[in-house]
Design brief:
Keywords: Membrane, Transmembrane, Transmembrane helix
Structural class: mainly alpha
Order of helices and strands: HHHHHHHHHHHHHHHHHH
Number of helices: 18
Pfam families: DUF819
Number of domains: 1
Strand content: under 5%
Protein name: DUF819 domain-containing protein
Organism: Agathobaculum faecis
Number of strands: 0
Shape: globular
């Protein structure tokens, strides 16, 4: 049994490295259905359940690392979100994205209103975290879980849904591509604007400097850690004079604003933010899972069914809005996956239409990072009324 805090964290970091390395080296299709980040959560829970480390002896290391790394990860994640580039997507695609976001939120609210008796009175918290993920990405899920003070075991339910239901939704959307001509004809959609925006974004992408440097990486990680430290102090200070939001929520908001402002400055152009944010994301996920036990996952089937209900409601609303506003299949599909799948899968769906459309998928997914945390917290508080 591990009792040393540094050894405990080192084992978690190495496990994350092994899983990511296995995906890159083996290229198994298995990882398409269960991504390394989800597998990391599950395997770390197995180790926790087996008593691989002393929970009390390692609690100090967990407490010192989790929040500090989490807020630094948020900074790096949001540095990629240049609002000016996102606005270039045009009103129709932005409308499609927000239609998907709103329909996802409605799906969560209606599902919890129906299923709260089976899920439990506190289920609105992990569902809110999952909503943050399905509007943005795994980083948003972690941020919402911190803001809502969600227990690690409860968060595991959200990860189970995120793995199983999300995988099936991706397969469904990839299958639906073949019906794009019929769908576009039914909605009377035009793709002229899409083609124009895509050509412009692709030209900009080719001009961008993507070379990662040592100096750039050091500046990014140092700056992110500094913003994490100062943001927590400011969050605590604001909470003292504005207690209607707790310290964690204020900290998330402060860090988000700082990062979004920095993203439109030369800092946002420094290469490496995406890679570093993913490293920190895996660290945070491993730390969270290290305090959860699989013995507490007794109601997973009900949660999985609830996840499919959420996706069903989301899909029905999005199709209805597509008919009303004449949205094309690409806009609807990528908007849905940009929310639910994030940067990992939205570009794949976009590329399945055309390689030239990949930048559109990336930008729509990045926009999810901006609204995911706030959207998840808002949806959670609406669901709370049904508890």
């Amino acid at each position: 049994m591990i009792t040393n805090g540094f050894t405990y964290f080192a084992v978690l970091a190495f496990l994350a490295a092994v899983l990511v390395g296995a995906e890159k080296l083996t290229k198994w299709k298995f990882f398409k259905f269960i991504p390394p980040v989800v597998l990391l959560y599950l395997l770390t829970m197995l180790l926790c359940t087996a008593g691989a480390w002393d929970m009390e002896a390692t609690s100090a290391a967990y407490g010192a690392l989790k929040n500090n790394i989490l807020y630094a990860m948020l900074v790096l994640m949001l540095l990629r979100c240049d609002i000016r580039k996102i606005l270039k997507l045009g009103p129709r695609m932005l409308g499609g994205f927000f239609a998907a976001s709103i329909s996802i939120s409605i799906g969560f609210i209606l599902t919890y209103a129906i299923m709260h008796g089976q899920l439990g009175s506190e289920a609105w918290k992990p569902l809110g975290a999952l909503c943050g993920s399905w509007m943005g990405g795994s980083g948003n899920l972690v941020a919402v879980s911190e803001a809502l003070h969600i227990g690690e075991a409860d968060l595991a339910y959200a990860l189970v849904i995120d793995s199983i239901d999300y995988s099936i939704w991706v397969m469904f959307l990839l299958w639906a591509i073949s019906f794009a001509p019929q769908f576009n004809k039914w909605t009377k959609a035009s793709t002229a604007t899409l083609d124009e925006v895509c050509a412009r974004l692709e030209a900009e992408e080719k001009e961008a400097d993507k070379h990662i440097t040592f100096a750039g990486l050091l500046f990014l990680i140092g700056g992110a850690l500094l913003v994490s430290a100062i943001g927590q102090n400011i969050g605590a200070a604001i909470n003292g004079v504005a207690p209607w939001l707790d310290k964690a929520t204020w900290t998330v908001l402060v860090v988000t604003v700082v990062a979004l402002v920095a993203a439109v400055t030369p800092i946002g152009k420094i290469a490496g933010a995406a890679e570093l944010s993913n490293v920190l994301l895996y660290m945070v996920i491993a730390l969270l899972a290290s305090r959860a036990s699989l013995l507490e996952l007794t109601e997973a089937p009900v949660w999985i069914i609830s996840g499919f209900m959420i996706l069903g409601i989301h899909g029905i609303i999005l199709v209805a809005l597509a008919k009303i506003f004449k949205l094309d299949m690409f806009t609807c599909g990528v908007a849905s996956l940009a929310n639910i799948g994030g940067t990992a899968s939205a570009p794949i769906l976009a590329g399945s239409y055309s390689g030239a459309l990949v930048p559109v998928g990336v930008l729509m997914a990045l926009m999810g990072y901006v609204i995911g945390t706030g959207g998840g917290i808002l949806t959670a508080n609406i669901m709370k009324f049904f508890a």
